[in-house]
Design goal:
The structure is a homodimer of 143-residue chains.
Chain A (H helix, E strand, L loop, with lengths): L4 H15 L8 H8 L3 H13 L3 E4 L5 E4 L8 H9 L24 H16 L3 H6 L10
Antiparallel strand pairs in A: 1-2
Helix pairs in contact in A: 1-3, 1-4, 4-5
Chain A binds a DNA duplex (30 and 30 nucleotides) through helix 3.
DNA sequence: TCTTATTCCTACTATACTCGTAGGAAAGTA
DNA sequence: TACTTTCCTACGAGTATAGTAGGAATAAGA
C-alpha cells in the first residue's frame, strides 16, 4: 500500500519548482541536482506532468519547465492521481472501473469507499503551497 | 497504492467466519467455497491470522478455525496491518523504520504523516462487526 | 489400530510492476 | 552551424504479487 517513487518524486519536483520559480524556465538538470534524482528518471515523471497540464516545457537553449498554475492551485490529490493512476485503495473503486456486479451484496465495499473518501479529502485539502510552508530550510529531502 | 488480495481476502474471511460462527470450528473448505477463493491461498492468509492471534486453528477431523475475539474487537486496521505489513503510505513511516536523517528539512514528511493518520484513524474506527451490518443479504463478494 | 479429515509447513513459479537506463530525434537560441 | 534542452521509444534488472504443489503432523471415529 505504498505510494511509488513517481508520486513522491513528483511532489518534490513541484515543490522545488515552486520554490525556485523565476521569470524564466527551470531545467531538469537543476532539479535533478537539487533533488538528487537521476535526470533521466525525472524526465519520465515530468513528462506526465506536462501531459496533464501541471507544468509546461520549453525546448532549446534557455528552455526548461515552469508551473502552469500557482502552487496554491495544485493539490496533492491531483498530482498523486496523475502519477499513481488513482488514489483508490481497491481496484473496483478506481475511476473508470466497471461497477462491480455484486456491489449491492458486498460487505466490504462501504469500508473501502469510506477509506477512499478520507484519503481523497485529505489529499485534496493539501496543496504544493501548503507543503512549502512545512519542514526546514533547505533543498534536502529523503522520501 | 492498492491494497493487495491478502488484505482484502483477510477481511472477507473474518466477516465470513463471524457470520457463520457456531460452537464448533469452521473449515477452510467451507470458507473457500462461500468466498470463491482457492483453499490453498486461503491457507496462507489464515496462517498469518493464526500467528497473530486473530483466529485459532484446530487440527484433525472436526477441526477448523474459530475467531479468538468477538467481531467488535477486531478492527480493519489490525487486520490490514498484519496482511500488508504496514498501513503507512511511504517507507520512512513504516513501523520500525529507521527515522529519516533529513526529516527535519523534509517538505513532504508532514503531508505523509497526515495521510498516514487519516488512514489509520479511519481503519481503527471500523470493526468486523461494523462490516457485517453493511451490504446486502448473501455470501457474495467481489473484491 | 486404521482411515479419514483437517491444519500446518516449505518450497516453487509465472506474471506484472517498479525503478530506473540508453540512445537519439525534434526544436529552439545564438 | 553549434549548442542546449525537451521529447519520445525501447529496453532491463530486480522485486512483489498471487497463487500452486506436495507432504508432514495431528486429531477423531470406526
Amino acid at each position: 500500500m505504498l505510494i511509488s517513487t513517481k508520486g513522491r518524486y513528483a511532489l518534490r519536483i513541484l515543490i522545488d519548482m515552486a520554490e525556485h520559480q523565476t521569470a524564466g524556465c527551470i531545467t531538469l538538470q537543476e532539479i535533478a541536482q537539487r533533488q538528487d534524482i537521476s535526470e533521466k528518471y525525472l524526465e519520465s515523471i515530468v513528462r506526465e506532468l506536462v501531459k496533464k497540464g501541471i507544468v509546461a516545457g520549453q525546448r532549446g537553449k534557455g528552455g526548461g519547465y515552469r508551473l502552469c498554475r500557482s502552487p496554491e492551485q495544485i493539490t496533492a490529490a491531483e498530482v498523486l492521481r496523475i502519477m499513481e493512476g488513482s488514489l483508490a485503495p481497491v481496484a473496483c473503486l478506481t475511476e473508470g472501473a466497471a461497477p462491480c456486479r455484486k456491489a449491492a451484496q458486498c460487505r466490504t465495499l462501504d469500508f473501502w469507499r469510506g477509506l477512499r473518501d478520507v484519503i481523497d479529502d485529505y489529499a485534496r485539502s493539501c496543496t504544493i503551497a501548503d507543503m512549502m510552508q512545512t519542514g526546514g530550510d533547505g533543498d534536502d529531502y529523503i522520501i
